Amino acid sequence: MAQRIKEDRKNLYIASLRNCPTSPRKMRLVADLVRGMDVAKASAVLQFTKKHAARDLEKLLRSAISNFEQKSGERWEEADLVIKEVSVDGGRVLKRIRPAPQGRAFRIRKRSNHVTMILDSANPNFVAKGNNNETIETEA
Fold this sequence. Notes:
elongated; disordered C terminus
């Protein structure tokens, strides 16, 4: 079981961003824009999106592309990459105090998030040069 999962992850290219100081709700708005897109199109969408979270996601996308190039030894333009999965999870919450009337205090929760991006090839028969494992090609 573990060996099969390890083999499946060889063809996935993962990048993660930890403790990003943006609320998960705001980051999910931008992540939903690019989920399932082609990498070149997603990069253009993120570049021209006015949300602050788009800059962090664009940087994460460049990191995932770099991971692909390091792991496979090929150029990303030739691989026909797509964003297979983007998950945004809540990170740590910094709790601050704001003074309130009549001696009271209100809590301010400064939220952060963790983002994980997984790239995959849109071509099911694509095998990277760096992977030495045997693959079975099916005829359609």
